[in-house]
Amino acid sequence: xxxxxxxxxxxxxxxxxxxxxxxxxxxxxxxxxxxxxxxxxxxxxxxxxxxxxxxxxxxxxxxxxxxxxxxxxxxxxxxxxxxxxxxxxxxxxxxxxxxxxxxxxxxxxxxxxxxxxxxxxxxxxxxxxxxxxxxxxxxxxxxxxxxxxxxxxxxxxxxxxxxxxxxxxxxxxxxxxxxxxxxxxxxxxxxxxxxxxxxxxxxxxxxxxxxxxxxxxxxxxxxxxxxxxxxxxxxxxxxxxxxxxxxxxxxxxxxxxxxxxxxxxxxxxxxxxxxxxxxxxxxxxxxxxxxxxxxxxxxxxxxxxxxxxxx
Length: 311
Prior knowledge:
By secondary structure, this protein is mostly helical. The chain contains 11 helices and no strands. Keywords: Coiled coil.
């Protein structure tokens, strides 16, 4: 795709991404609270297709710059890291009204006791004192109920937005803090030393080993590994969106959405997991043709060696 065929939005995004490249140092990227529109992401990927990269490091820098620009365009603050809780304006207004209603009810109570020195609030000036006091109480109850309802509905919307991008975090919030203490270090070391440092020997000339060596003496080598776009798409689809990104600050979410950068991938942090996972899958596919079923206890989707026995 040439620059002449880009939309105005894509051209603007391209210019912003190019200006953001190679900025140092990198800062943590904020997680999205809602999913960007498909049309917006199409413009982003269209812009990325006309930005060339020649090394895996440049590709990594392009991913980070693109994610930064997306967050900026969507209105996220760049100084991410200050964990101050935003106070919604509607909540501030509701609490101010409740405060005023409480003050007015206090004034009505003073007036009923004959101790009120200031004039009646204007909204109650045409009422008797008992009627004004009852009206003030009902108004306070209505305002408090409205605030409670708005808070509940706002929390439900927040959870729905969070669930769209970070379902695991929603479940962890519902389950509460289930952190477990680490086992004692000395006890752990002694346990594993008893397993790995214990000397053992076996009969290296056993007949079954001789037969095994003969059977596997002419196995073909694995073909050269070629990583395709399909390999990347398949592998990245199974990775979690917002796991810790590591020093390059790039979450897996951006690898899924910025499909135009499916080219050489840098072996750092989250992108290293992607690359190593693809290579491991190809090696596993080759070795799986020749390994005995009894030796697949450490393979993918197996529970362990002891569960591989067939009786």
